[in-house]
Design brief:
Layout: H1 4-16, H2 26-31, H3 40-52, H4 60-72, H5 77-105, H6 114-117, H7 120-128, H8 133-148, H9 152-163, H10 173-200, H11 206-221, H12 229-241, H13 246-267, H14 273-290, H15 300-309, H16 313-320, H17 337-369
Helix pairs in contact: 1-3, 1-4, 4-5, 5-8, 8-9, 9-10, 13-14, 14-15, 15-16, 16-17
Length: 370
C-alpha cells in the first residue's frame, strides 16, 4: 500500500553505482535523459512525482540497508523487496528478544511485547510496506535495555544507530541527558553526535548539507497529511486570512514542541527508566499531535513505548490510523476531514482519560486515604 520502497531501492542502487544519493533527485537524471541505475524507469514510475522531485532524507543506516538490497538484487525489484523485508524481520526478532528482556527487568509480563510484534498495523506498515521504523525501533529498544542495565556507553552506541536509521529518536536526547545526569548525559550525547558524524561522513559535502536541511524542512513547511491540531489551526488561519498558513503554523508548532520538551525535561524527575519511558511516550505523542504530517507508520514508535508503560491510547491509534488510508482512495489523495476527526476523537479521548483524568482520579483517591 506504499510506494516508498521504490525510492529505497533507487537510493540503494545509486550507492551501488557510486553516486551520492543525497546530491541528486531522480528528476535530475530523467530531465537529462539518463538512466543511472538498473531498472531506473520502473523505479522512477513507481516512486511517483513527489518523491522523484525531492532529495532523499533517509539517514545512513537506512541507506546501508537499501545498499544491501542492491548488492543482493541489483536487477530485480522483487529481489530487492525480499532482501529489505528480511532485514526488517531480523530487526523484529531482535526487538522481540530485547523487548522481553526489558519487560522482565521492569517486572512486567514479557508477553506484552506481542502487542507490538503481532499487531496487524506493525505487520502491514513495517514488514509489509517496508518502512524501516522497525530497524530504528530495534536499536532503540536495545538502547533502553542497556540503559536499564546501566551500560550507558553501549546504550549510546545503540541509540546512535537508531538515530542514523530515522532521525526521530533525537527528540528523546534531552530526557536521556537528564536521566543520566550531567557528566554521563554529556558523554552519552557526545557519543551519539560523534557516531552520527562518522556515519554521515561518506555523504557530506556543502551540497549535501543544503539539500538535507531543505528536505527535512519540507516536513514542517510544505507537507501535510493526517494532522490533528495543525488541521484545526489551519482552518482558523483560513477563516482569518483565506490562505493556507502552513509555512507559518508548521514552524510555530515545532517551536511549541521544543518548549514542551524543555519544560518536561526540567519538570520531570526522570530518575528511573520507567519514568523516562513514560515521558518519552508523552513527548513523541505531543509532537505527532502538533505535526503537519502523521503517516501511519509514524505511530509504531508510540506503540513500542506503550508496551513498556502500560498506556493504551497508542494501541487505539494503531487501529484508528487505518482510517487515514481512505485518503488514497481518490486519485488526488484528498483527505476527508470528518474521517480524520473520527480518528483523533477516539485517540484524544483515550489520551485525555489515561494521561489527565486517570491521574487526577488517582490523586483524589490518595487524598481521601490521607
Amino acid at each position: 500500500m506504499s510506494q516508498d520502497f521504490f525510492r529505497f531501492i533507487w537510493d540503494g542502487r545509486m550507492i551501488f553505482e557510486g553516486y551520492n544519493p543525497f546530491l541528486y533527485t531522480p528528476n535530475f537524471f530523467f530531465e537529462k535523459g539518463e538512466l543511472p541505475v538498473s531498472g531506473a524507469q520502473t523505479l522512477y514510475d513507481g516512486m511517483g512525482w513527489l518523491s522523484a522531485s525531492h532529495f532523499t532524507n533517509y539517514p545512513p543506516v537506512s541507506q546501508f540497508c537499501y545498499f544491501l538490497a542492491a548488492v543482493f538484487a541489483n536487477h530485480s525489484v522483487l529481489g530487492s523487496i525480499i532482501a529489505m523485508r528480511i532485514l526488517i524481520i531480523i530487526a523484529d526478532f531482535a526487538t522481540l528478544f530485547f523487548g522481553r528482556k526489558l519487560l522482565k527487568a521492569l517486572h512486567l509480563n514479557p508477553n506484552y511485547i506481542f502487542w507490538y510484534i503481532l499487531n496487524p498495523f506493525i505487520i502491514i506498515e513495517l514488514t509489509g510496506n517496508l518502512h524501516f521504523e522497525g530497524v530504528m525501533i530495534c536499536f532503540l529498544v536495545l538502547s533502553l535495555y542497556l540503559l536499564q542495565k546501566l551500560k550507558w556507553q553501549w546504550a549510546a552506541v545503540a541509540f546512535s544507530l537508531s538515530v542514523a536509521t530515522k532521525l526521530i529518536p533525537l527528540i528523546f536526547l534531552p530526557l536521556i541527558f537528564k536521566h543520566l545526569k550531567l557528566k554521563k548525559g554529556f558523554l552519552f550525547c557526545s557519543i551519539v553526535g560523534l557516531i552520527n558524524i562518522v556515519l554521515f561522513l561518506p555523504f557530506i559535502s556543502s551540497e549535501f548539507i543544503t539539500n538535507y536541511t531543505e528536505t527535512v524542512g519540507l516536513w514542517f513547511k510544505n507537507f501535510e497529511f493526517n494532522a490533528s491540531l495543525f488541521n484545526i489551526s489551519k482552518s482558523i488561519g483560513y477563516q482569518i486570512t483565506g490562505e493556507n498558513k502552513i509555512k507559518l503554523i508548521g514552524p510555530v508548532m515545532a517551536i511549541l514542541v521544543i518548549l514542551y520538551i524543555l519544560y518536561t525535561t526540567y519538570k520531570s524527575p526522570l530518575k528511573d527508566i520507567k519514568n523516562l519511558l513514560i515521558n518519552m511516550l508523552l513527548i513523541i505523542s505531543v509532537y505527532y499531535f502538533m505535526a503537519t504530517t502523521v503517516h501511519p507508520w509514524y505511530v509504531s514508535i508510540l506503540l513500542i513505548l506503550a508496551v513498556f508503560t502500560g498506556y493504551k491510547f497508542p494501541l487505539i491509534w494503531s487501529v484508528t490510523i487505518i482510517l487515514s488510508y481512505l485518503a488514497y482512495v481518490s486519485s488526488d489523495h484528498k483527505e476527508n476531514l470528518w474521517i480524520i476527526g473520527l480518528e483523533y476523537i477516539l485517540v484524544y479521548g483515550a489520551f485525555i482519560y489515561e494521561v489527565i483524568l486517570k491521574k487526577q482520579l488517582g490523586n483524589k483517591h490518595i487524598d481521601k486515604r490521607s
